[in-house]
Design goal:
Layout lengths: L1 E7 L3 E7 L5 E8 L2 H9 L5 E6 L4 H8 L5 E5 L5 H4 L6 H13 L11 H33 L15 H10 L4 H28 L4 H7 L7 H11 L8 H7 L4 E6 L2 E6 L5 H13 L1
Parallel strand pairs: 1-4, 4-5
Antiparallel strand pairs: 1-2, 2-3, 6-7
Helix pairs in contact: 5-7, 5-9, 8-9, 9-11
């Protein structure tokens, strides 16, 4: 069995190959293209498995490599202390460390969702980014009004109804209303994009609509929260027990103790989207 560690970047990939005894037999830098990566892997004789660190390109590399190797593992970077804690760190050494961890079976794999959950997860993440963009646009607009001495609580400042009257009054005072109009235009665009993202989520959630319907029967869980929960937790069986579920949701306790001395506190890790949905539901209840 050959153990291949790949440190993948946008333009180049450093690869290191170890044999069944853990000895490095090949190390090379290749271009990150489908043709060169497949040619490199298929040129290695015998059974082989590949490890890459989880990043934006890991899913593409995994799907491309799977037909040509026995196993492809996407690993959690934060668990690879041999890489992050090393004082001799570069792309070449990172590939060596990945192949060594793979040979020693010390890799923490990342869960691979089915295609229907993966597509929904992409749509959910894009929606939350669009929601944050709209919030930023509203904050910029309210900041402009505050800079010009006008403060209003609530959402009336974002409405279309009195927008023209507000801007006309500010223009008479010699304010830069052209900037305000651009900020309003940016906010309207973000609002329209957010609505389109909601439509895309509904469309991508059709294959799992029964699961979404079941999740939304829980108190304070609406459609958006339901899409988020299903995209991350899938059918509920991917996480084996409650303790690991709390940890994944960022709701577990972190503890540093020795001989009954130390500290306890709330977790700072976990999936942020899942934690936001669960905490929001708890506050609502």
């Amino acid at each position: 069995m050959k153990h291949i560690g790949m440190d993948v970047h946008s333009t180049t990939t450093d690869a290191c190959v170890r044999n069944g005894r853990g000895v490095i037999v090949l190390q090379r830098r290749i271009r990150t293209t489908q043709k060169e990566l497949i040619n490199f892997v298929t040129g290695i004789e015998g059974q082989k498995r590949v490890v890459v660190e989880e990043d934006q390109m890991a899913d593409w590399v995994t799907r491309m490599m799977q037909p040509h190797v026995e196993e492809v593992i996407r690993c959690q970077p934060q668990y690879n202390k041999l890489i992050s804690g090393s004082e001799d760190k570069c792309d070449k050494m990172d590939a060596r460390a990945l192949s060594e961890l793979l040979y020693l079976n010390r890799i923490k794999p990342v869960h691979h969702p089915e295609i229907k959950y993966r597509i929904l997860r992409e749509a959910v993440r894009a929606y939350w980014v669009a929601s944050q963009d709209l919030t930023r646009a509203k904050n910029r607009l309210k900041g402009w009004y505050l800079f010009n001495g006008l403060y209003e609580s609530g959402r009336s400042i974002y409405s279309v109804r009195n927008r023209g009257k507000r801007l006309k009054a500010m223009q008479q005072e010699g304010r830069n209303t052209e900037l305000a109009e651009l900020l309003y235009e940016q906010m309207d665009t973000c609002r329209l994009l957010k609505a389109k993202h909601i439509q895309m989520m509904r469309k991508t959630a059709r294959p799992v609509k029964d699961l979404v319907k079941l999740v939304t029967t829980m108190p304070a869980i609406g459609p958006i929260s339901g899409y988020t929960l299903v995209s991350l937790l899938e059918d509920g069986w991917r996480i084996p027990n409650k303790r690991k579920l709390w940890r994944y949701a960022g709701l577990s306790l972190r503890r540093y103790e020795s001989r009954d001395f130390g500290m306890k506190g709330s977790s700072k890790s976990g999936n942020r989207l899942l934690k936001r949905v669960v905490m929001s539901a708890a506050i609502t209840i």
